[in-house]
Amino acid sequence: MQLSHRRKFVKQLLATSLTGLVLPSFAETSELAPPTSAEDEKYWDEVKKQFTVPADHIMMNAANLCPSPAVVQDKVQELTKALNKDVSFQYRALFSATRKKSVSLLAQFVGADENEVGITRNTSESNCMIVHGLDLKPGDEIIIWEQNHPSNNEVWLSQAKRIGFTIKKISVPAAPTSVNDLIQPFVNAITPNTKLIAFSHLSNVSGLALPAKEICQVAKARGIMTLVDGAQTFGSMNINVHDMDCTFYSASTHKWLMGPFENGVLYVQKDYFSRIWPAIIGGGWKESTTVDQHLCVLGQRNEPSPAALPEIVAFHEAIGIKNIESRIVQLSTYLKQQIKTKIPKATFVTPESPLYSGGIVIFNLPGKEIHEITDKLYHTYKIATAPSGGIRLSPHVYNTMKDIDYVVKAIGEVAK
Questions:
Q1: Domains of the chain
Q2: pTM value?
């Protein structure tokens, strides 16, 4: 499909089969039935065609790295070729305008003001900018969730060792029965010395989703900052950081957003802007009242990559951000149902209810080694998964119900 045709398809998405698409809302239901409408699947088949994954491969590892739709790949390649033809200061000046556009669109995408958002290289860098940028002292306390990614756990432990503040690591029930089960452990850990709570919105090692808004509101009421790692929800859930009431939010564009590689997002609530020192100062840095200019001037960058961010934002908006969220939950719920039905010996790490999970599905097969299973799924069946917390599958909009059925059948064969 040529570039012009791909762009035409994206613009037409909402005007075609999607108009008849009715998917349950993530927030409104705890049980999702498999789809019954052939028309709906026909639509998602068309979405799948926008990606260049070979027909005999199934990418089900969105929690780690997503393919980009061809329209994004084309934009990066187009700009990269142009840059290689002319690396002058004069030509590269155009990337200043494209970066501002990308920042503006990302801010709108997460419900933030334009000056509150900057482009980093990934979630880890965004997290580290906050950890290393805050003025903390001995006696201060930071609360972290034990299921955080290392860039939101180990970095705090390292900095605490250097500075002398205290880390309190908390756990939550693996099988919560209420939202309060997930909030109360954080509340119980708070003391007058607590300065910040850092947690993953959705765990990459269990698939458990935390009630981010409620935790942030509890913290804010006590004058405590929050750092929400949104690596597993940015692009898979409808995010509004102002409504969430977090102080800081971090994410990557190369996971669920399906965007160009090596780009991250950093949100700093405007009232806290002056409390973060820049961790890296590159050429062209200056004092600024915007997050991108004050914290994210990192020296020479691969500018064609962030310049392609408007393409993926347009892709999401054409399909509908809420429709993407619902489709991901639909796929992951169907995946859980099929595994439970056809591979009864499988044990789930991820909560079965969408109320406490998202797009990640993690399970184990008793008596089977995790890496052996994931390697066999790839080398024998061309299915990309991950050995993270168990056998981790994370389907996205470039997957179909037929893909789910094939994956479950393959798992059943390797489980024998």
A1: 8-69+319-414 (3.90.1150.10), 76-313 (3.40.640.10)
A2: 0.89
